[in-house]
Fold:
Amino acid sequence: MTSSKQPFELPSFYVPWSARLNPNLEAARVHSKAWAYEMGILGGAEGSEDYGIWDERKFDAHDYALLCSYTHPDADESILNLVTDWYVWVFFFDDRFLELYKRTQDMAGAKKYLNGLPVFMPVQPQQMPPEPTNAVERGLVDLWTRTVPNASQDWVIRFSESTINLLKESLWELANISQNRVANPIEYIEMRRKMGGAPWSANLVEHAVGAEIPAAIAPTRPMHVLKDTFSDGVHLRNDIFSYQREVEEEGENANCILVL
Structure:
């Protein structure tokens, strides 16, 4: 049973600009739910590994279309739908991994599962992914084919790497849980910068606004510093909001408040 008392007082965050909302919000809500059913994220067959991870009530409460409408206020309807589907996919992956591998501490199964996912996002156009067997694989195949055709090879490689790193973060977290080990602050910041969701989100922003960072600039130190700063701002602030749920309800120990 979790405590209803907040373990700390939330600070007042400095937010200098007013949020803007994408006018295609309702269309994205309708589309993302239909897409979730089509992929098996919702409505999975009883007895399958996807069954019961999410139901429609939980999906509506998460409201990923609202999240993406605030973070991509200028995207047209098709791009907003694509970005929203990506966020539905990545959060479903996270919750599915929690139920199947973190709660059971199935390290062998987790490694096999994660090692099999990169083949569903080939970086070479002539490569064909295998037949998907679950909602995560099915969603990844669909999203990849909708995202990469008009992107440069350099961006595809960067986005693939950041997606793989994002998936690997779950394995690092599981290893720490299995060993009852809390990372030290320096390791924690370094791993979150590399494997957290912010670098992945930053790459997706490039695609959403149709302005890829040139290949000659993307790997430079100033860009790394900008991405690290962005990552710290997103991840550490998220740790404040999610501390109680992650630590008290889900048994996570990859949270900066706990680390410190």
The radius of gyration is 18 Å. The CA atoms of residues 212 and 231 lie 19 Å apart.
